[in-house]
Amino acid sequence: MFNEIKSVIRAPLEAVYEKRLARRLHKFPTPRHIGVILDGNRRWAANQGGPTSRGHRVGASKISQFLEWCEEQDVEVVTLWLLSTDNLRRSESELIPLLGIIEQTAVDLANDGRWKLQAVGALDGLPEKIQLALKNAEALTSSNKTMQVNLAVGYGGRQEVVDAVSSYIREEGAKGNTPEAIAAMIDAEAIENHLYTKGQPDPDLVIRTSGEQRLSGFLLWQSAHSEFWFCEAYWPDFRRIDFLRAIRDYGIRQRRYGG
Q1: Tens digit of pLDDT for each residue in 144-181?
Q2: Does residue 8 lie within any of the structural domains?
Q3: How far apart are CA 251 and CA 31, in angstroms?
Q4: What stretches of the chain adopt beta strand conformation (E)?
Q5: What mean pLDDT is predicted for residues 99-121?
Q6: Hey, which residues are catalytic here?
Q7: Could you tell me how far CA 15 lies from the centroid of its own chain?
Q8: Is residue 33 part of a domain?
Q9: Residue-wise over 5-36: b if at least 16 C-beta within 10 A, else e?
């Protein structure tokens, strides 16, 4: 009973604070690219006493709302980490429903038509059905001149760097360059031009939910100068007020780019 009373009192106060916070954000710089590690779906489901798939499903339903919040702040690129290469080693009882939820999420976002979608990750390691859904989502939204949304599926930061280097070597080898010449030419720019996110700005801000304070290899190369914001809330419980706090915190930091 006491908790219910607290909730009734807290809700209008939080609404007022959220509106005030939103009005103040115009004073701060906005991140061009936000990366998000959507963590905590499994633990949220466990706390609710339901199956893991319910956590993933509720987490997926949060995505469109989150993208709307990003649009409000004029964010240009959002990268959502939906499935890591490590996740692919989970039990079939969890992985199969999760892949189905990700597939449906890609279909729903593409049909929504508000954003330009791109799949990033080692897609060849995914079931053919989800590969097709991701490629169709890209094709359906390729002409959109709106916010870029990267769906990181089967993604691992180390694998991305390996794939980038391999792609560069194959490309230069096809031109007739020797291994020695390729080794002499390879540099940071060459790798950047072969990353999954080539041509996009690096993430200014990386958000991770669930209280974990690590990147787990997310955008390993691109996040060298990113600002990080860790939130205790599990992804299904992530609120607009949490997002606004992340934007405010980013805005008041003095970015030194490693200096």
Answers
A1: 999 999 999 999 999 999 999 999 999 999 999 999 99
A2: no
A3: 8
A4: 33-37, 77-84, 116-120, 148-155, 205-208, 227-230
A5: 97
A6: 39, 87
A7: 26
A8: yes
A9: eeeeeeeeeeeeebeeebeeeeeeebbebbbb
Q: Is the pLDDT of residue 14 over 70?
A: yes
Q: In this structure, which amino acid lies at residue 147?
A: M
Q: Which two tokens stand for residue 7?
A: 């909730």
Position 259 pLDDT exceeds 90: no
User: Where residue 232 falls among pLDDT bands split at 50, 70, 90?
Assistant: very high
**Angle between helix 52-61 and helix 92-112 axes, rounded to 10 deg:** 10
CATH number at residue 212: 3.40.1180.10
Position of tokens 């979608």?
117
Q: Provide the token pair at 65.
A: 């709302």
Based on the structure, what is the number of domains in the chain?
1
Radius of gyration of the chain from its Cα atoms, rounded to whole angstroms: 20
Q: Helix (H, G, I), strand (E, B), or coil: what is residue 213?
A: coil
pLDDT at 201 (0 to 100) = 97
Could you tell me if residue 215 is inside a domain? yes
Residues 215, 229: Cα–Cα separation, whole Å: 11
Domain that holds residue 225: 29-156+202-252
Report percent pLDDT > 70 for the chain: 94
Phi, psi of 79, deg, nearest 5? -115, 120
| Residue-level pLDDT at 28 | 83
64 falls within a domain: yes
Entry field: residues in the chain: 259
